[in-house]
Write a structure and sequence with these properties.
Blueprint (H helix, E strand, L loop, with lengths): L7 H55 L3 E6 L6 H22 L3 E8 L3 E8 L9 H6 L4 H11 L3 E7 L3 E9 L12
Parallel strand pairs: 1-2
Antiparallel strand pairs: 2-3, 3-5, 4-5
Helix pairs in contact: 1-2, 2-4
Length: 185
Amino acid sequence: RREGGQRPERITTVVEGLDRITVDLQAVTADLRGLMGALAGDEIESGGLTGALSKLLVPLAESGVQVDISVGELVCDARVRSLIHRVVQELVRNVAKHAAAHRVDLTITEDRDEVRLALTDDGQGFDLGALGERQRRGHMGLLLVEQRVQDAGGMLQVTSTLGRGTKVVMRLPLAGPEVSGPPAR
Protein backbone atom coordinates (compact mmCIF):
# COMPACT_ATOMS: atom_id res chain seq x y z
CA ARG A 1 0.00 0.00 0.00
CA ARG A 2 2.86 2.37 0.81
CA GLU A 3 4.38 1.92 -2.60
CA GLY A 4 1.09 2.80 -4.24
CA GLY A 5 1.51 -0.01 -6.72
CA GLN A 6 -0.41 -2.67 -4.82
CA ARG A 7 -3.84 -3.27 -6.27
CA PRO A 8 -6.68 -4.46 -4.03
CA GLU A 9 -6.77 -7.75 -5.96
CA ARG A 10 -3.11 -8.38 -5.15
CA ILE A 11 -3.68 -7.64 -1.46
CA THR A 12 -6.68 -10.02 -1.45
CA THR A 13 -4.56 -12.75 -3.06
CA VAL A 14 -1.82 -12.31 -0.46
CA VAL A 15 -4.34 -12.39 2.42
CA GLU A 16 -5.90 -15.58 1.02
CA GLY A 17 -2.44 -17.14 0.75
CA LEU A 18 -1.67 -16.23 4.34
CA ASP A 19 -4.99 -17.74 5.44
CA ARG A 20 -4.09 -21.03 3.69
CA ILE A 21 -0.66 -21.02 5.33
CA THR A 22 -2.29 -20.45 8.73
CA VAL A 23 -4.66 -23.40 8.22
CA ASP A 24 -1.77 -25.60 7.10
CA LEU A 25 0.32 -24.62 10.13
CA GLN A 26 -2.59 -25.37 12.45
CA ALA A 27 -2.93 -28.83 10.89
CA VAL A 28 0.82 -29.50 11.23
CA THR A 29 0.70 -28.33 14.85
CA ALA A 30 -2.21 -30.68 15.58
CA ASP A 31 -0.30 -33.56 13.96
CA LEU A 32 2.82 -32.81 15.99
CA ARG A 33 0.79 -32.66 19.21
CA GLY A 34 -0.72 -36.03 18.35
CA LEU A 35 2.70 -37.53 17.70
CA MET A 36 4.12 -36.04 20.90
CA GLY A 37 1.16 -37.39 22.83
CA ALA A 38 1.63 -40.83 21.31
CA LEU A 39 5.33 -40.78 22.19
CA ALA A 40 4.54 -39.65 25.71
CA GLY A 41 1.92 -42.41 25.95
CA ASP A 42 4.49 -45.03 24.95
CA GLU A 43 7.00 -43.65 27.44
CA ILE A 44 4.38 -43.56 30.20
CA GLU A 45 3.30 -47.12 29.41
CA SER A 46 6.83 -48.51 29.45
CA GLY A 47 8.17 -46.72 32.54
CA GLY A 48 5.04 -45.52 34.27
CA LEU A 49 4.14 -41.87 34.78
CA THR A 50 6.70 -41.37 37.55
CA GLY A 51 9.47 -42.75 35.33
CA ALA A 52 8.41 -40.60 32.37
CA LEU A 53 8.28 -37.48 34.55
CA SER A 54 11.64 -38.31 36.11
CA LYS A 55 13.16 -38.44 32.62
CA LEU A 56 11.86 -34.92 31.98
CA LEU A 57 13.63 -33.71 35.14
CA VAL A 58 16.98 -35.41 34.45
CA PRO A 59 18.47 -32.49 32.47
CA LEU A 60 17.73 -30.13 35.37
CA ALA A 61 19.33 -32.50 37.87
CA GLU A 62 22.36 -32.96 35.60
CA SER A 63 22.80 -29.18 35.49
CA GLY A 64 23.01 -29.05 39.31
CA VAL A 65 19.39 -28.27 40.19
CA GLN A 66 18.13 -30.17 43.22
CA VAL A 67 15.00 -31.99 42.06
CA ASP A 68 12.32 -33.55 44.24
CA ILE A 69 9.45 -35.49 42.67
CA SER A 70 6.48 -36.98 44.46
CA VAL A 71 3.75 -38.77 42.55
CA GLY A 72 0.96 -40.19 44.65
CA GLU A 73 -1.24 -43.15 43.82
CA LEU A 74 -2.96 -42.31 40.54
CA VAL A 75 -5.85 -44.22 39.02
CA CYS A 76 -6.63 -41.66 36.30
CA ASP A 77 -6.83 -42.77 32.67
CA ALA A 78 -4.18 -42.58 29.96
CA ARG A 79 -5.49 -39.28 28.62
CA VAL A 80 -5.07 -37.56 31.98
CA ARG A 81 -1.60 -39.07 32.39
CA SER A 82 -0.64 -37.80 28.94
CA LEU A 83 -1.87 -34.30 29.80
CA ILE A 84 0.09 -34.36 33.06
CA HIS A 85 3.20 -35.37 31.11
CA ARG A 86 2.71 -32.56 28.58
CA VAL A 87 2.16 -29.93 31.29
CA VAL A 88 5.27 -31.01 33.21
CA GLN A 89 7.27 -31.09 29.98
CA GLU A 90 6.47 -27.43 29.25
CA LEU A 91 6.95 -26.31 32.85
CA VAL A 92 10.35 -28.00 33.09
CA ARG A 93 11.35 -26.46 29.76
CA ASN A 94 10.45 -23.02 31.17
CA VAL A 95 12.44 -23.62 34.35
CA ALA A 96 15.48 -24.73 32.35
CA LYS A 97 15.31 -21.73 29.99
CA HIS A 98 14.29 -18.91 32.30
CA ALA A 99 14.36 -19.62 36.03
CA ALA A 100 18.02 -20.06 36.98
CA ALA A 101 16.66 -22.22 39.80
CA HIS A 102 18.62 -24.19 42.38
CA ARG A 103 15.66 -26.32 43.47
CA VAL A 104 12.54 -27.69 41.76
CA ASP A 105 9.75 -29.60 43.51
CA LEU A 106 7.09 -31.52 41.59
CA THR A 107 4.12 -33.01 43.41
CA ILE A 108 1.19 -34.83 41.85
CA THR A 109 -1.72 -36.13 43.88
CA GLU A 110 -5.16 -37.49 43.13
CA ASP A 111 -8.24 -37.69 45.26
CA ARG A 112 -11.72 -38.87 44.35
CA ASP A 113 -12.54 -35.75 42.34
CA GLU A 114 -9.37 -34.29 40.88
CA VAL A 115 -5.70 -34.54 40.03
CA ARG A 116 -3.53 -31.77 41.46
CA LEU A 117 -0.09 -30.96 40.10
CA ALA A 118 2.25 -28.42 41.70
CA LEU A 119 5.65 -27.47 40.33
CA THR A 120 7.66 -24.98 42.38
CA ASP A 121 11.07 -23.50 41.70
CA ASP A 122 13.27 -21.13 43.70
CA GLY A 123 14.51 -19.30 40.62
CA GLN A 124 14.45 -15.68 39.62
CA GLY A 125 10.69 -15.53 39.07
CA PHE A 126 9.08 -13.17 36.61
CA ASP A 127 6.60 -10.32 36.38
CA LEU A 128 3.20 -11.87 35.68
CA GLY A 129 2.09 -8.51 34.29
CA ALA A 130 4.64 -8.86 31.49
CA LEU A 131 3.38 -12.32 30.50
CA GLY A 132 0.97 -10.92 27.90
CA GLU A 133 3.78 -9.01 26.19
CA ARG A 134 5.99 -12.12 26.17
CA GLN A 135 3.15 -14.07 24.53
CA ARG A 136 2.76 -11.38 21.86
CA ARG A 137 6.46 -11.81 21.10
CA GLY A 138 5.95 -15.53 20.48
CA HIS A 139 6.47 -17.14 23.92
CA MET A 140 3.32 -19.28 23.72
CA GLY A 141 4.19 -22.44 25.67
CA LEU A 142 2.52 -21.53 28.94
CA LEU A 143 -0.55 -20.15 27.17
CA LEU A 144 -0.94 -23.32 25.09
CA VAL A 145 -0.59 -25.55 28.14
CA GLU A 146 -3.14 -23.45 30.01
CA GLN A 147 -5.55 -23.78 27.08
CA ARG A 148 -5.17 -27.57 26.98
CA VAL A 149 -5.82 -27.78 30.73
CA GLN A 150 -8.89 -25.53 30.40
CA ASP A 151 -10.15 -27.60 27.45
CA ALA A 152 -9.98 -30.61 29.77
CA GLY A 153 -12.09 -28.78 32.37
CA GLY A 154 -9.19 -27.86 34.63
CA MET A 155 -7.35 -24.75 35.67
CA LEU A 156 -3.74 -23.63 35.71
CA GLN A 157 -2.64 -21.04 38.26
CA VAL A 158 0.74 -19.36 38.04
CA THR A 159 2.21 -17.32 40.88
CA SER A 160 5.63 -15.75 40.66
CA THR A 161 7.66 -13.17 42.55
CA LEU A 162 10.78 -11.58 41.14
CA GLY A 163 13.78 -13.05 42.93
CA ARG A 164 11.70 -15.63 44.80
CA GLY A 165 10.65 -18.20 42.24
CA THR A 166 7.53 -19.49 40.57
CA LYS A 167 4.77 -21.91 41.47
CA VAL A 168 2.40 -23.47 38.96
CA VAL A 169 -0.63 -25.42 40.15
CA MET A 170 -2.86 -27.46 37.88
CA ARG A 171 -6.18 -28.80 39.08
CA LEU A 172 -7.96 -31.21 36.80
CA PRO A 173 -11.34 -32.71 37.67
CA LEU A 174 -11.54 -36.42 36.97
CA ALA A 175 -15.13 -36.08 35.76
CA GLY A 176 -15.92 -33.52 33.11
CA PRO A 177 -14.81 -32.64 29.58
CA GLU A 178 -12.65 -35.17 27.84
CA VAL A 179 -8.94 -34.53 28.19
CA SER A 180 -7.34 -33.71 24.85
CA GLY A 181 -4.54 -35.99 23.82
CA PRO A 182 -4.07 -39.36 22.21
CA PRO A 183 -6.85 -41.90 22.61
CA ALA A 184 -6.61 -44.28 25.55
CA ARG A 185 -5.20 -47.68 24.67
